[in-house]
Amino acid sequence: MLPKIFPILNTPEIQAFVGSDPVRIFDFGIAPQGTEAPYIAFNQVADSPYDQLSGAACADLSTMQIDIYSKGREEVREMAVIVKSIFDKKLMCNRLVFQTRETDTLLYRICIEVDVIETS
Questions:
Q1: 49 preceded by cis ω (within 30°)?
Q2: Which of 15, 94, 108, 120 has the lowest CB atom count within 10 Å?
Q3: DSSP assignment, residue 88?
């Protein structure tokens, strides 16, 4: 429960886009008002225990939503490929959920879901 996604995303490849001081990667799915794009926001959308009959659950399966925002269509795609690659290298199942352009901010957005299994 409550997997640590920030350290996974806070890599030099991602910092090249979102900066490092301060880094623009935000928990709870919300960036502060006025945050300069590009940035990443993430939040937990589901969690369920791996129940078993012989005792307490041995692990939790959490689904995390990673939202990637950019002013540019190509940049948001490039960032999404890097994010996917980071989770692939960690052997975490991930999938593109949707891509859109926000009507209020006019930012491009790609959403990736990641399944994280954490043992007890």
A1: no
A2: 120
A3: H
Q: What is the pLDDT of residues 56-104, one digit of tens each?
A: 877 888 899 999 999 999 999 999 999 999 999 998 999 999 999 999 9
pLDDT digits (tens, 9 = 90+) for 10-39: 999 999 999 999 999 999 999 999 999 999
72 within 8 A of 31, measured Cβ to Cβ: no
Task: Give the residues across from 31 on adjacent strands.
Answer: none
In angstroms, rounded to a whole number, what is the distance separating the alpha carbons of residues 67 and 24? 12
Helix, strand, coil percentages in the chain from 3-state DSSP, rounded to 5: 25, 40, 40
Q: Which amino acid is present at 75?
A: E
pTM above 0.85, yes or no: yes
Q: State the Cα angle at 33 between 30 and 34, rounded to 5°.
A: 125
